[in-house]
Design a protein that fits this description.
This protein is about 25% helix and about 20% strand. It is α/β, with parallel strands linked by helices. Among the domains are: about 130 residues, Rossmann fold (3-Layer(aba) Sandwich); about 130 residues, ANL, C-terminal domain (GMP Synthetase, Chain A, domain 3), CATH 3.30.300.30.
């Protein structure tokens, strides 16, 4: 017999990417996870029991490593009585012989009805112009899911066209206009804020709706909910699966600082708050559909894999030639992200090709080739606050075209003179990419 436990009894510890230091050890509760996962998979993703005649003989596969919260979510499919199909291996084939049909062949062999993966996977498949007909019989597949980073409209439309063509040969009515149950959420609460609804229209590049029980808004700089404009993704009411606490965060200070520091109690003088700030740019349209425009904080998101900048700094600054460094990752819809790395080198060290190769080798050895920067630049200083914190987010905003007076307060900088170099770099970068 199972042991009966309280609703908020700790279930597991999952780790965040470590944006502001060491990864956050997040403790979730049993009851909250059950409710949120059931709402996402059973209601929004419309995943049913494998053995029920009205559930299409459901088979569910979401490609994930065990270190990503989507692994936990996939196992949650068992709550709906769904058969979970597990794949162990690289989704893109071997390094020396890339093959982006690998997962599609698995989908065909397992007769999956729902297939999800990171947005980067679908983008790579489209870039490789894979032939879905070579994967085998995909006729049982009725729904696709994407998360991890924004899925571009072009990528989604590319697959729509391919599946519409497939439907003419395999007779699948679902694939004539295949449904995308794309989601946006996080490890932080092991769920989604935004997702799909089979009864709503869908537009490539957008997600269909905010989830049941998720009081999600896009906040303006004044802390007001806006429609049709890009703002900070916030959740104004509690959700059952929000963390119980962080492991070893005895007074809850780190928990509060992570999510509620921007909008604390009475943040706008109206008595409201605290409000959960998630760290994404969001636009909610008049029809309720939503578009995510990437991270609003300094988290690195390369090819769908998120990582805190501290891990990159640890690898780079372990080199004796590197005194300081700063990295920003610019995410875009419809084109690849751009990640420049700025390094302060020891006197007498020149940033030549040999030094660039040494920096890249250190990153690859400690992390992965996925986190190699697009370009490396030598700078005199890294901009820092008076308290010594690297000012990643203001530099990121400058490179995205925002006005300097709106993103940084020079009086709060320890070294404001160094900002001139970054302003000139931003102007040049924006001119090059216009």
């Amino acid at each position: 017999e199972p042991m009966w436990l309280p609703f908020d009894h700790p279930l597991w510890i999952v780790y965040s990417s470590g944006t502001t230091g060491l990864p956050k050890p997040i403790v979730h509760g049993h009851g909250g996870i059950v409710i949120v996962v059931l709402a996402l998979l059973g209601l929004h993703n419309d995943i049913g029991c494998s053995y029920h005649e009205n559930s299409f003989g459901e088979r569910y596969h979401w490609y994930s490593s065990t270190g990503w919260i989507m692994w936990n979510s996939q196992v949650g499919g068992l709550l709906s009585g769904t058969t979970c199909c597990i794949f162990d291996g690289s989704p893109g084939g071997a390094k020396d012989k890339p093959d982006w049909t690998t997962l599609w062949r698995f989908v065909a062999q397992s007769k999956a009805t729902f297939f999800g993966a990171g947005a980067a996977f679908f983008a790579n498949c489209a870039k490789a112009e894979i032939d879905l007909t070579a994967a085998g019989d995909l006729s049982r597949l009725r729904c696709l899911g994407s998360t991890g980073s924004p899925l571009s409209a072009d990528t989604q439309a590319w697959f729509n066209d391919r599946f519409a063509a497939l439907s003419k040969t395999n007779g699948s009515k679902a694939q004539a206009d295949i449904w995308w149950a794309n989601i946006s959420g996080g490890t932080d609460f092991a769920g989604a804020f935004i997702g799909g609804n089979r009864e709503l229209p869908q537009t490539p590049g957008a997600m269909q709706c905010r989830l049941l029980g998720a009081a999600v808004e896009a906040f303006s700089e004044q802390g007001r909910a806006v429609t049709g404009e890009v703002g900070e993704l916030v959740c104004t009411e509690p959700m059952p699966s929000m963390p119980l606490y962080f492991w070893n965060d005895k007074d809850g200070a780190r928990y509060r600082a992570s999510y509620f520091e921007t909008y604390p109690d009475n943040f706008d003088g109206s008595g409201r708050g605290p409000v959960w700030r998630h760290g994404d740019w969001l636009k909610v349209d008049l029809d309720g559909s939503c578009i995510i425009y990437g991270r609003s904080d300094a988290t690195i998101n390369r090819h769908g894999l998120r990582m805190g900048t501290s891990e990159l700094y640890s690898a780079i600054e372990a080199l004796p030639e590197v005194l300081d460094s700063l990295v920003v990752d610019l995410e875009y819809l419809g084109r690849d992200s751009y990640m420049p790395l700025f390094v302060v080198l020891r006197e007498g060290t020149v940033l030549d090709e040999a030094m660039r190769a040494k920096i890249n080798k250190a990153i690859e050895a400690s992390l992965s080739r996925r986190f190699l920067p697009n370009e490396i630049f030598a700078v005199a200083e890294v901009p820092r606050t008076l308290s010594g914190k690297k000012q990643e987010l203001p530099i990121k905003k400058l490179l995205l075209g925002q006005a300097v007076e709106k993103v940084i307060n020079k009086e709060a900088m320890a070294n404001p003179a160094c900002l001139d170099w970054y302003l000139a770099f931003a102007r040049d970068y924006l001119a090059r990419t216009a």
